[in-house]
Amino acid sequence: MSEDLGITVKRDKDMSEWYQQVVLKAEFADYSSVKGSIVIRYWGQAIWEAIHDFWDPIMKSHGVKNHYFPLLIPEGLLKKEAKHFEGFTPEVAWVTMAGKNQLEERLAVRPTSETIMYEMFSKWIKSHRDLPFRANQWCNILRWETKMTKPFLRGREFLWHEAHTVHKDKKGADEETKWAIDGYARIAEELLAMPVIRGRKTDSDKFAGADYTYAIEALMPDGKALQMGTSHMLGQNFSKPYDVKFVGVDEKWHHAWQTSWGFSTRAIGGLILAHGDNKGAIIPPSVAPVQVVIVPIIFKKTDEDVLSKCKEVEIRLQNSGIRVELDDRDEYTAGWKFNHWEVRGVPLRLEIGPRDIKEKKAVLVRRDSGEKSEVSDMYVEQAVQEGLAEIQAELFSRGKKNLEENTVVTESLEDLKKAIKGKKWARVPHCGEEACENALAEKVEGGPRVIPFEQEAVHNNKCINCDKKAAYWVYWGRSY
Amino acid sequence: MSEDLGITVKRDKDMSEWYQQVVLKAEFADYSSVKGSIVIRYWGQAIWEAIHDFWDPIMKSHGVKNHYFPLLIPEGLLKKEAKHFEGFTPEVAWVTMAGKNQLEERLAVRPTSETIMYEMFSKWIKSHRDLPFRANQWCNILRWETKMTKPFLRGREFLWHEAHTVHKDKKGADEETKWAIDGYARIAEELLAMPVIRGRKTDSDKFAGADYTYAIEALMPDGKALQMGTSHMLGQNFSKPYDVKFVGVDEKWHHAWQTSWGFSTRAIGGLILAHGDNKGAIIPPSVAPVQVVIVPIIFKKTDEDVLSKCKEVEIRLQNSGIRVELDDRDEYTAGWKFNHWEVRGVPLRLEIGPRDIKEKKAVLVRRDSGEKSEVSDMYVEQAVQEGLAEIQAELFSRGKKNLEENTVVTESLEDLKKAIKGKKWARVPHCGEEACENALAEKVEGGPRVIPFEQEAVHNNKCINCDKKAAYWVYWGRSY
User: Measured between alpha carbons, how far is A227 from B321 in angstroms, rounded to an integer?
Assistant: First the structure.
């Protein structure tokens, strides 16, 4: 395989360069002439569609209804919640002209849609009978990153879904915030085969305008954490300035309780980082655009039997609901095709040659382990289905192992430093005070990632940085 | 029913006011504080999703692959094809600032994506083996309308899909342009129950930068035409400035031939206009978010049997793949609910009361005709399925009748004028010259809508406006 097509750097040597090569060469995405914005190519977009197709029906059966809200938000509207505006305004792209005319008020390209949605909610919601109310949109988002961008992981434009819910009391909103983060953990674990830690962000890291933020965090093989989805309890912070209120059973007006939660194309980058190897990507079967590729092994131009057998098997696999592609291009060798599909991370390869036909079998090759096995022609569908299930499970268990092996639990500052240097993260006791958190960040690289829902008792522990009593255990580490 | 919820104007009296009331009261959409932009509410968005779910797999089996391209297009890139830039620049919204910084080059919010896509195609396409190449995206579009906006029909932001294809010769691109418009006619006729005329736009009306544009046009009940989808043969007009070329079998470089085609949320407006009546919307069963609503008829609080029977029927209908909603809200009367769902255009209503349970039946009411029938409990699923199919067919045949009755075929200028005054459109012979077309537009309201693919012979006809020989028959009329 030419250097041009294969991955030329080892993943452990330079993960950043490796990642970039995989994204480009496997055609997940490409750079555009718009600085900081990528083009999501078919191979990446198909994964996003798989996430949509998994999650959209779950949301719908939970009572979420899809809407579409305007892209542009008048500055005056964005300003109504002060902390929110302050948090987002450095990243906002502004439309100031239309045609040849200067606009009277500049319009923000949505960095998130709380403000434009809640103005409408305020019109639509009147009674406790309208609650809970749940609206969602699948859309594009612009945030003018000034840091180094990285395809999928950090860019000026991304795709996401954002759901916004309204409840009559705190309890309803609290439960919703939790429901959403549990759902995101299902996307990560069941669909993307990425084990995650669920928990709460420390106050310094919560969403601008939220009471608290829940997040799921995955640990990448280079020891950096990746935040994959967030769910915000907004309390009444928006319902007051945006006037989202309802008449309760008591016939009085009340300000509503709200949540918002989102999951973005960032997950595609996470998936590539988490599962890939030196040969390229490995895509979990559940979301792989192609789950199995059939490569005909042809020696002579006259081996027509091979092609017709391959076509037969393709149709049989399609009929079993498997996403299959037959690579019957005649301009490439079988070896070239093996590499082509390995870089792209297709979970299974099925090779069929003249000898296989004679012996009524095929050769099945796993992308994750390279393991080859002979399967009887009669049971190809079953073998492929089993292979896909095994790879899905294996990727998750590799992730689990990575997480376990690279998590240090310690109360010692020295051990924390050692962990970070050793490309791990650590679970440490902390007093929960922001000043102390900042002081710790001066001493140790990284920052607080997430306060896990699952907590050991901390009543006997002191904060890792100060003498105070610990308030919680928190994951500390570097991040994407 | 209170005036607030029902439609208070007759459709024939003031279609514009009627339309606005239906859009708002049936909750298809709402006005936002962003002038000229609407919020698409659940009831409208669900129709857009139904269109997506019908059309996306058809495109995919045709070889189209979904991508996502950046929202913002640098001015310099947009400018490369002069006619295209000239055509779109009056409607472009410009991003000129990000955070606190003035941008060096202003960025257009995409009014369409030819330019940003073709820059990438130029990188990706190298050989005749890469062709045909077909990329699509589902996305939002901004065009700064200065005319009066109307929800769905004309607005500053809309959703659409845009497919862009690349071919090695003119023949391939010609065929693709035709394939797409035929597909759009299927969406309109099979899914939305709207008969359309397929044809070519006159040169004055074609897409900025195209060799020719195909369109489907539907005739609304007020005699105005609605353009519902367009397919553009771009020739080599873009492949030259954007450098989309390939090495042919002859081992030489050739500029490619291209097409682009799009279908937008405008169709939702068309559907409302086409099928509604004085009571509100009538949604074709194929795209109705709710196909049948069950309304329990409860006289006493103790009629619990009724509710449990309704729930049983709801589940049975769900299991038959029918989109059903049980309206079991206890704060509203049955009559209120009838109106509520009639305004929204739900095709079928199923009423179940205590007497129905005793007699093992239910009452089925059609939204299109108001017709009531008793159906045996045993055959509810079948009756609903048949009812839905009949309504779908009936709506299409009403549309067909509207089209036939309101199309005048004439060679006389006076008859054309009369037709337009009488809220019809006309098929007339024309010489095909732009100056003559403009002269005709001075004399008769409206303009050329579409040159139908199906043409009668014109060798004996003179142009309706000048003495020259007619080149084709063209539909002439007012439009949305």
Answer: 38
Task: Say how far apart CA B387 and CA B398 lie, in whole Å.
Answer: 16
Q: Which two tokens stand for residue B167?
A: 């071919």
Contact B66, A46 (CB under 8 A): yes
**How far is B349 from B363, CA to CA, in rounded Å?**
8
Per-residue confidence (pLDDT) for residue A110, from 0 to 100: 97
Instruction: Grade residue A335 by pLDDT with cuts at 50, 70 and 90.
Output: very high
A 13-32 → B contacts, CB under 8 A: 30, 32
Domain housing B414: 407-477
- Token pair, residue B234, equals 């771009």
Same domain, A66 and A130: yes
Residue A315 and residue A418 in one domain:
no
Q: What is the pLDDT of residues B320-362, one digit of tens each?
A: 999 999 999 989 999 999 999 999 999 999 999 999 999 999 9
| Residue B192 shares a structural domain with residue B308 | no
Residue B71 scores a pLDDT above 80: yes
Q: Is residue A3 part of a domain?
A: no
8 Å CB contact of A68 and B40: yes
Residue type, B272: I
B409 touches chain A (CB under 8 A): no
**Contact residues on chain A for B163, CB-CB shorter than 8 A:** none
Structural domains in chain B (count): 3
Contact B34 A66 (CB under 8 A): no
Which has the higher per-residue pLDDT, B65 or B89? B65
Cα separation, B478 vs B223, whole angstroms: 7
This prediction's pTM: 0.96
Residue B239 backbone dihedrals phi, psi, to 5 degrees: -65, -30
Are B265 and B144 found together in one domain? Answer: yes
- Burial class of residue B173 (count of CB atoms within 10 Å of its CB; 0-12, 13-18, 19+): buried
**Same domain, residue pair A175 and A242:** yes
B438 touches chain A (CB under 8 A): no
Name which of A2, A25, A59, A72 to mutate to probe chain B: the one with the most chain B Cβ atoms within 10 A of its Cβ: A72
- Report the residue of chain B nearest A104, measured CA to CA: B35
Is A330 a residue whose pLDDT tops 80?
Answer: yes
Asked whether the beta carbons of residue B109 and residue A71 sit closer than 8 angstroms, the reply is yes
Q: What is the CATH number of the domain that holds A463?
A: 3.30.110.30
Are residues A129 and A174 part of one domain? yes
**Considering B246, B275, B304, which residue would you say is the last residue of a domain?**
B275
The answer to whether A96 contacts B99, with C-beta atoms less than 8 Å apart, is: no
pLDDT digits (tens, 9 = 90+) for A208-229: 899 999 999 999 999 999 999 9
- Residue B5, pLDDT > 80, answer no
Is B397 contained in some domain? no
Q: Are residues B70 and B215 in the same domain?
A: yes
- Regarding whether A266 and A313 lie in a shared domain, the answer is no
What CATH number should be reported for the domain holding residue A310?
Answer: 3.40.50.800
Flag if B37 and A146 touch (Cβ within 8 Å).
no
Predicted confidence (pLDDT) at residue B34 exceeds the cutoff of 90: no
For residue A186, the model assigns a pLDDT of: 98
Residue found by looking up tokens 């640098």 in the block: B74
